[in-house]
Design a protein that fits this description.
Elements: H1 2-10, E1 27-32, H2 37-44, E2 80-85, E3 95-101, H3 118-132, E4 142-145, E5 151-154, E6 162-169, E7 176-179, E8 184-189, E9 192-197, E10 203-205, E11 214-219, E12 225-229, E13 233-234, E14 236-242, E15 246-250, H4 253-270, E16 289-293, E17 303-306, E18 316-319, H5 326-345, H6 362-379, H7 396-401, H8 432-439, H9 445-455, H10 464-471
Parallel strand pairs: 6-15, 12-16, 16-18
Antiparallel strand pairs: 1-2, 1-3, 4-5, 6-7, 6-10, 8-9, 8-11, 11-14, 12-13, 17-18
Helix pairs in contact: 1-3, 4-5, 5-6, 8-9
Length: 472
């Protein structure tokens, strides 16, 4: 940067007071090297760090959905790259300083010149530095021609990156296009980085102006959950490098799977969820929920939930079989997150061992089936749940909730008179919160039933025993 400033000064190419520049180290480009899950948890506690799973000093030459450093082996967590102000206090996690940087665009001493004539001089300095290092891109500028026919480049006007993120939803008939809300979008030009979250209409705007092309990308994470490519790689959508709005419509591949999982997790954590308890939020002991997306279409399982990973010691959910439609994958994600929510409501050490139940898994699987049914219907109103052949996955919660006014696949098929396994049950009107509160601290199926009858007032409670007895 100092060489660039000297060149501009010597050749009288900068029409401003160059003494205003105070070239010094303002930022550090660093690579965090977490040794284990505990150090990774410490790292993500700082929500002001904009972390990337891939190096920032490399140009992205093709689209991709994850990056794995070739030197990282096995189940070790990936490195994390970022650029931070020189005086920022960092987590106690090993890191390597890759470069000390002067970023005039981020220099607090120059903030007062934003929009002023001196702002052009900042751009000239940055451009000269790019030329000296072989990184100058003429596409960032506007070609002009003098009256004598000589071609020259002029500074392009500033612009604000924005756009809309959507996906094709084949879980409805016919297939529809839905807005993706709560998506974390990164906009980056080298080490100048901004972040935005899409609104309810799928729109984002970074609120910061650039002169040059930017790299758009989606990092599939929020404060309380992160989506991974299988178990290790952070899930991304590496978008285009361009100088215009980014309007994305996701329709296939891993990105489709990430998008569906995001919609379900975002609903369960941050939107209406029938007053049910959210899954565990990020904390200093467990970190945040990790949701692994797998393209294993030939497995019988559709999902799994392990609240403590055997290898990485992080809460983990796995979603398989991306060959299913959006509604099915959405419901599976809610089901697995419901296990995590249930785990958060009871004694953690006993969650997988319900002694005294007719089946070792019936209580928590039945609870997850019911939560998935109720919350998925908020997104897909005609969602009918699923009739399982495995008795551990009973439809008890559905039969406690549904009533003749709730539609099945059409208005001619009310849910309470024969849509689920138990045909024509006489119970209706219980809420998810009532069902959830009755399960707190309870390990047995019939203890759960008795709590429900004792702690709630429902006109059909005399028939609750019939529902439970039908399944067990």
């Amino acid at each position: 940067m100092q060489l660039a400033l000297n060149e501009l000064y010597i050749h009288n190419q900068m029409d401003c007071d160059t003494s205003i520049f105070n070239i010094r180290v303002t930022h550090k480009y660093i690579k965090f090297i977490p040794a284990d899950s505990l150090e990774y948890i410490d790292l993500i506690q700082d929500s002001t760090l904009l972390l990337f799973d891939y190096p920032l000093d490399r140009k992205l030459t093709k689209a991709g959905t994850y990056f794995r450093d070739s030197t990282v082996e096995g189940c070790v967590l990936n490195f994390q790259w970022t650029c931070v102000p020189i005086d920022k206090e960092l987590p106690d996690v090993p890191y390597e300083v890759l470069a000390e940087i002067y970023l005039p665009e981020e220099d607090p001493e120059l903030a007062q010149y934003d929009g002023a004539d001196f702002d052009n001089c900042i751009t000239l300095l940055v451009d000269e530095a790019f030329k000296l290092t072989g990184n100058f891109d003429t596409l960032d500028h506007t070609e002009n021609m003098t009256s004598g026919g000589e071609l020259f480049l002029s500074l392009a006007p500033k612009w604000t990156p924005s756009g809309t993120i959507r996906m094709e939803d084949d879980g409805t008939t016919p297939t529809s296009t839905v807005n993706l809300r709560g998506v974390k979008v990164h906009v980056r030009h080298w080490f100048e980085i901004r972040e935005s979250i899409t609104d309810i209409n799928g729109n984002f705007n970074v609120g910061h102006t650039f002169r040059k092309q930017v790299n758009y990308s989606i990092k599939w994470e929020r404060n309380d959950f992160e989506i991974r490519h299988k178990r290790i790689g952070q899930a991304y959508f590496n978008g285009p490098e361009q100088k215009s709005a980014w309007n994305l419509n996701i329709s296939s591949g891993y990105s489709r799977l990430y998008a569906i999982i995001h919609r379900a997790a975002h609903r369960y954590y941050y939107e209406a969820r029938e007053n049910s308890e959210a899954p565990p939020r990020k904390n200093e002991q467990l970190g945040r929920m990790t949701i692994g997306a797998f393209d294993w279409d030939d497995v019988s399982l559709s999902g799994q939930c392990w609240m403590v990973r055997k290898t990485l010691n992080l809460p983990e959910i796995k979603i398989f079989r991306q060959d299913r439609n959006c509604q099915q994958i959405y419901a599976t994600t809610i089901h697995e997150l419901a296990h995590a929510s249930h785990w958060n409501l009871v004694d953690h050490t006993d969650y997988y061992y319900f002694e005294g139940s007719p089946s070792s898994y019936v209580v928590h699987e039945t609870f997850a089936v019911g939560i998935s049914y109720a919350i998925t219907r908020l997104e897909y109103p005609l969602h009918r749940g699923k009739s399982y052949t495995n008795p551990d996955y009973s439809n008890i919660v559905m039969d406690l909730i549904d009533n003749p006014s709730m539609e099945g696949p059409s208005s001619s098929t009310p849910l309470n008179i024969g849509w689920h396994i138990y045909q024509g049950d006489s119970v209706e009107g219980y809420t998810i919160k009532q069902v959830q509160d009755a399960i707190i601290g309870e390990k047995t199926l019939y203890g759960w039933r008795d709590n429900l009858k004792e702690d709630t007032n429902n006109a059909t409670e005399n028939h609750v025993d019939e529902v439970f007895d039908h399944y067990w």
